Amino acid sequence: MASNVNPTVRRRRLGQELRRLRELKGMTAEEVAERLLVSQSKISRLENGRRSISQRDVRDLCGVYEVEDQRIVDSLMQMAKDSRQQGWWHAFGDIPYSVYIGLETDAESLRVYEPQIITGLLQTRAYAEAIVQGGSPESSEQENDKRVEVRLRRQSRITADQDPLRLWVVLDEAALHRVVGSRQVMREQLEHVLELSQLPHITVQVLPFEVGAHAGINGQYSILEFADAADSSVVYIEGVTSDLYLEKPHDVQKYTVMYEHLRAQSLNVEQSRRLVERLVKEYAR
């Protein structure tokens, strides 16, 4: 469940405010970096919320931007303090996609296109274990167990009694046919998808093979949206060694339009359910 202070979101909001102050001052990130004798990449990471920010960083930046209102400085300092608190996921140690977890924890809605596997928020434990082990064959059993537990913990966002995450998933039909774990694991997994898809805030559509080339042909991505107008939408693209976060309005709009095409090309909700039900019966044989 989301905590009262989400460090990832605090960093994003603080970074947006610092960028606003820099732009009001008419300075480039390079000019600020030169004034503070730091790298330009540090200023960029502070502004995009990908790096924790200290109260000293805030104080120095406010000095460069000549912020005279002490109330603004104090507010930004408090945000910096809050941003260094730990979210629930930090208890599991170093999680490569911890930034994404922080965003997902605070998101109001999430749209996912998944071409290869059942998306993480809909996975059963057995399916998740098989996916994690198959995807990370060189990791230790302890590391893989941690990843599974984090994945299952994330699912509390879609099962919460109050303000659950609104989830829309487009699954490529390939994800339903790929046997992960065993046929029994697949049967239980697809039954789980059917059960969750009955919840009013969860929608699942299947993109059938017969569509051919489609708007999601380049691969998996997610679009996160937030209740607070101050938090811009984010497109998340998962990578092997690093992840990509797109927040520019043009980029988000492009992926949003792509997602609408995917939804239109997919089977409708009832047709998708019938396909999944048929595959459940096949896996039971």
Automatic annotation (TrEMBL):
<dbReference type="Pfam" id="PF19054">
    <property type="entry name" value="DUF5753"/>
</dbReference>
<dbReference type="Pfam" id="PF13560">
    <property type="entry name" value="HTH_31"/>
</dbReference>
<feature type="domain" description="HTH cro/C1-type">
    <location>
        <begin position="18"/>
        <end position="72"/>
    </location>
</feature>
<dbReference type="InterPro" id="IPR001387">
    <property type="entry name" value="Cro/C1-type_HTH"/>
</dbReference>
<dbReference type="InterPro" id="IPR043917">
    <property type="entry name" value="DUF5753"/>
</dbReference>
<protein>
    <submittedName>
        <fullName>Helix-turn-helix transcriptional regulator</fullName>
    </submittedName>
</protein>
<dbReference type="InterPro" id="IPR010982">
    <property type="entry name" value="Lambda_DNA-bd_dom_sf"/>
</dbReference>
